[in-house]
Amino acid sequence: MRPNLVDIDPIQRIYVNRNLRLESIRAIGFDMDHTLATYKPVPFERLAFEKAKPKLVAVGYPQTLLRLKYQPDFVVRGLTVDKARGNILKMDRHRYVVQGYHGTRKLPPEQRKALYARHRIRLGGATYVPVDTLFSLPEISLYAQMVDLMDAGSEPVNYRRLYDDVRGSMDEAHADGSIKRVIARHPMRFLELDSQLPEILDRIISQGIKLFLLTNSEGPYTALIMAQLLDGRLEGRQHWTDFFDQIVVRAGKPAFFGRHDPLRPLSPRVLCRGGSRRPRFTYSGGSVHALEKVLGVQGDKILFFGDHTYGDILKSKRICGWRTAMIIRGLERELESLTETRGQRLKLVVLERQIDRLVAWRDFLDRALEGQFPEGVVKRFLRDRDFGGGRRQIPAHKEALRGQIRRLRSSLEKLTAEMEATFNPYWGPIFRAGPETSHFANQVQEFACIYTSRVSNFLNYPMDKFFVTTHVFMPHEL
Predict the structure, then answer these.
(1) pTM recorded for the entire structure
(2) DSSP 322
(3) How far apart are CA 298 and CA 451, in angstroms?
(4) How many CB atoms lie within 10 A of CB 255?
């Protein structure tokens, strides 16, 4: 019996931005890190944070930075770094800055508006850097604390160079094996096992759909992680390579999607020792054109799962025409917080409507004093709202309305802060920026055909499912 959507826990649902008919898909691909392989956030991020610090000391930064501690909640996905000023920003879907911190110190509203209110942020240049991958979180947390540390000194701070040095130290920690060696010694300290992952991969294979793995990680590290996730967890597929037709490591995404390099054959012995269903193709590097050729499938017949907004989702969709499924682990916490704050959100709507009504009354009284309405209209307005005293009392009524509006707005601000702190004490929800959707939410809507919190959520749906978007309305249609 097929499950009804109302019977599926919201945390386990698939959310749809663009209609997707699974029956039309002939190949499904997966990124590894943060897609198939889910890392425990705090241990993994703290490890990267700690391994980058000595590398900063080695290039001349003060030893005192070694005392810095990772702050797990300070950085979330979807933020933007202003390298020129040492600021970390949250934008709405129009790319207007609605919140910001200089280092870890919140920017006062007047300072934030003075810096950013008159222009939209242009991403992709030398100044503004998006935080669009989970790998970036410890890097940005370290940068924010380094801004605080360097500001406390007597020398002027070059925030742009500081960011580049922090980024370089984090890249080096990943590239030289500092992080991966620790994970290799104690993988289960850092990995979350999804007991349903082997089952959903097997179900996909049973439908005659080709599976491929496409990761930037090196072969030995890929084998180590995938073995933890899949080896011996499903009868008939004892080795992790038994789940895939093609495997590409060291892919070099996002460049992988734009170049025309051939796939470089990789010895299967690098990845599989004893696999019963050896992958027909095991490669390193290459390009999307070469991969589509060996798959025998291309374009919108391919569905690709990834977590990286730019490196996985945007590029595979725009350049290749692949259908896209975005894995957003923060979605689970977001949904839990939505449930927890339901009562507060309803109160917010009531307060906003009350404020709008009182503002409209105040504006009417302003125009009435200017003589813009006939006397009969003004009298009826005052009588219907129990405003006594006639036209002479309008200034007093206006002042009373101003007081009510101030109090309601104060209550609204307090309630909003309490509600947003439930999501994150610094940034609030990742999908909202005040009354607007956030820049991150806008990217998800634009680039991901569907999105969910983990791959195994697809077990709740039939393999011939037609994912259909809800009807989208313009404001004038509501």
Answers:
(1) 0.90
(2) -
(3) 21
(4) 13
Q: What is the DSSP string of 354-411?
A: HHHHHHHHHHHHHHHHTT-S-HHHHHHHHHHTT--S-GGGHHHHHHHHHHHHHHHHHH
Q: Which of 9, 31, 176, 242 is catalytic?
A: 31
Give the separation between CA 307 and CA 449, rounded to whole angstroms: 13
When computed from its CA atoms, the radius of gyration of the chain, rounded to whole angstroms, is 27
| Three-class DSSP category at 318 | helix
pLDDT tens by residue, 304-353: 999 988 878 888 888 889 999 999 999 999 999 999 999 999 999 999 99
Rounded (10°) angle between helices 330-340 and 342-369:
70
Decide if 31 is catalytic. Answer: yes
Instruction: Tell me the sheet residues that pair with 131.
Output: 79
Asked if 332 and 462 touch (Cβ cutoff 8 Å), the reply is: no
Long-range contacts: 151-160, Cβ < 8 Å, 24+?
151/86, 151/103, 157/86, 159/83, 159/84, 159/85, 159/86, 160/83, 160/84, 160/126, 160/127
**Is the CB of residue 307 less than 8 Å from the CB of residue 134?**
yes
261-288 pLDDT per residue, tens: 999 998 777 776 554 445 557 899 999 9
Active-site choice (33, 132, 231, 312): 33
In the annotation, is 194 catalytic?
Answer: no
